[in-house]
Amino acid sequence: MGAIVFRKxxxxxxxxxxxxxxxxxxxxxxxxxxxxxxxxxxxNASVIFTPVEDNVRVGVGSTDKNGQYRLTSFQTNDGAxxxxxxVTIRAYEVPDGPLKPADDMSxxxxxxxxxxxxxxxxxxxxxxxxxxKNNVIDFKLTN
Length: 143
Known about the structure:
Layout: H1 2-16, E1 28-29, E2 31-37, E3 40-41, E4 45-51, E5 59-62, E6 68-70, E7 80-81, E8 83-91, E9 126-130, E10 135-136, E11 139-141
Parallel strand pairs: 2-10, 2-11
Antiparallel strand pairs: 1-7, 2-3, 2-6, 4-5, 4-8, 8-9
């Protein structure tokens, strides 16, 4: 009898692997929104939500051509940790020509389009509170 119970536990554990153990609660909620710079949508900006709580994974996203973003922590668009966050946003001019891999040593960024203060957690003045729901958090940046 013990071998049968053990086998059932092994099968249950194996069945859970491809699903990532759907019952696992990482304490995340979906986060999306729009970033504006001087009242215009800001394209190609990185958006980073850093939880106030230490040692917790950040939520990251990039804005599209309409300034809209969605955050990812573990899997695409899964959101950010529920709780309070400091937020940083930065955008650079996109260089002409084909995109290069991120590890290309010749990669150079264009001019920063956002004021430097928004790129650091201690100076951005941007915050976001993620609640256990679909969160829409917009940001209006100015020079």
